[in-house]
Design goal:
By secondary structure, the chain is mostly helical. It is built from nine helices and no strands. It has one domain. The protein is globular, with a radius of gyration of 17 Å.
């Protein structure tokens, strides 16, 4: 269980910092009470994590030999793709694209700043985050992790990783974003995926 917990915690924390969902939380928290935004974002991310782990467990009904090699291929493929993306980024890379996409999503589906109930804010944060996270590489990575590790450990680690990133986004997302290097984060994520792939291959 500890292996799944640690792997999920590291993977989610590195992958989600500066991601689209990170900026959705940061932008919403600038307009609305932080506690409602954080609660909505975390409900969405916990639900997505639980769903991803459940899908991973469904996959395990197939012969384990094929599941293990598919997991290795996905980890190595993700890792190489991220390293390639990092190598093509100029200088330190910029998070402006992710921020712009998040701002567009919030403006398109956002709420008026005044006289909005906490429930409405929570549901908006939940809906925006869930849609943004669906099909994201972290969702696919969580599915893959849960095929080779304890599902409880993966849920706990991924949830803690999401909570750390969501708290940073809500409390000081705009301030931190300017200091994050997309190139470094992408490269670290790529190396982490490759390490997981190699470890899975040896196991």
């Amino acid at each position: 269980m500890l292996t799944g917990f640690t792997a999920a915690l590291l993977l989610i924390t590195l992958s989600e910092l500066g991601d689209k969902t990170f900026f959705i939380g940061a932008i919403l928290a600038m307009k609305h009470p932080k506690r409602w935004v954080f609660a909505g974002v975390m409900l969405a991310l916990f639900g997505m994590t639980a769903l991803s782990v459940l899908l991973g467990q469904v996959v395990t009904v197939f012969p384990q030999h094929y599941v293990q090699w598919a997991a290795i291929a996905l980890f190595l493929g993700f890792g190489l793709k991220l390293l390639y993306d990092a190598s093509r980024m100029s200088n330190g890379g910029s998070l402006a694209d992710e921020q712009a996409e998040a701002l567009e999503a919030v403006q398109k589906n956002g709420l008026a700043v005044l006289k909005v109930s906490g429930y409405a804010i929570l549901m908006r944060a939940l809906a925006l985050t869930f849609v943004a996270e669906w099909g994201d590489r972290t969702q696919l990575a969580t599915i893959t992790l849960s095929t080779a590790n304890s599902p409880v450990g993966v849920v706990m680690g991924a949830t803690l990783g999401h909570a750390i990133c969501a708290a940073i986004a809500v409390m000081c997302g705009q301030l931190i974003a300017g200091k994050l290097s997309e190139r470094v984060l992408t490269a670290l994520g790529g190396m982490l995926f490759i390490i997981f792939g190699v470890v899975a291959a040896f196991q």
